Amino acid sequence: MKVSTKRRKPRRGRPLKTDAAPDMRERILDAAEDHFSRHGFWGVTVREVAQEAKVDTALLHYYFNTKRGLFDAVFERRAEIINRERTESIDAYVKSAGSAITVEGVIDAFLQPILQRAATGDQRWHNYFALIAQVNNTPAWGGETMGRTFDNVIHHLIDALRKALPDVSEEELYWSYHFLSGALTLTLSQTGRIDRLSEGVCKSSDFEAIGRRMAPFIASGFERLCKPQAAKRKKIP
User: Fold this and answer.
1) Could you read off the pLDDT of 83-127 as tens digits, one per residue?
2) Coil, helix or strand for 234?
3) Could you say which DSSP state residue 228 is in?
4) Of 13, 26, 37, 178, which sits 20 to 30 A from 20 (CA to CA)?
5) What is the pTM assigned to this prediction?
6) Interhelix angle 123-136/103-119, nearest 10 degrees
7) Helices (H) and strands (E) in the chain, counts
8) How many CB atoms lie within 10 A of CB 137?
9) How far is residue 37's CA from residue 51's CA, in Å, rounded to a whole number?
10) Rounded to the nearest 10 degrees, how much is the dihedral formed by the CA atoms of 28, 21, 146, 132?
11) Segment 152-175, tens digit of pLDDT
């Protein structure tokens, strides 16, 4: 059989979304992440992101359709990584602890992957964590976005905490998580307020210090609220 040596003509028009352009897509997402983390969703235009990424504005619309589509892609990209790492960390702890499982151990397993990411000094991860803090404090659509992105891993955390707190009150368990979420997102935002308030004794970028203190502190709150409720429930005939 004769093999054709005729060269194919290059395809004209816009690139397919499946074309080998991951570097371009990542460049766009990095630029968008940087802008959204500093100025919020409403303070950023598609044109500004395109200029930062050094691409035509039409490419952003082509790959992400709308500015909200771009924002969601930015928000979900790193979430996939930290959700997997936190799930694996919780599972590993629960398996190794067995019947000796503790509230502090579960919370530490949940926190460490994200605190370790924050401690690396990678500016892209810092941008992403600042973005999480913004979204978690956005009344209009922040709750829906956080829920869609992170609820699965949070339910995984809650299930592990139930093992450490048998007969726990569901109300106190979820209130306790609510306070954990606020403390974590404030910490990840690195506002520098604690630096000024403590006159430099504490630094919002000191994730080694944060990592040693946060799990014991949060666990004490869980135990203070949840354990008395669990004891009361056991006494009910």
Assistant:
1) 999 999 999 999 999 999 999 999 999 999 999 999 987 899 999
2) helix
3) H
4) 37
5) 0.84
6) 130
7) 10, 0
8) 13
9) 17
10) -40
11) 999 999 999 999 998 899 999 999
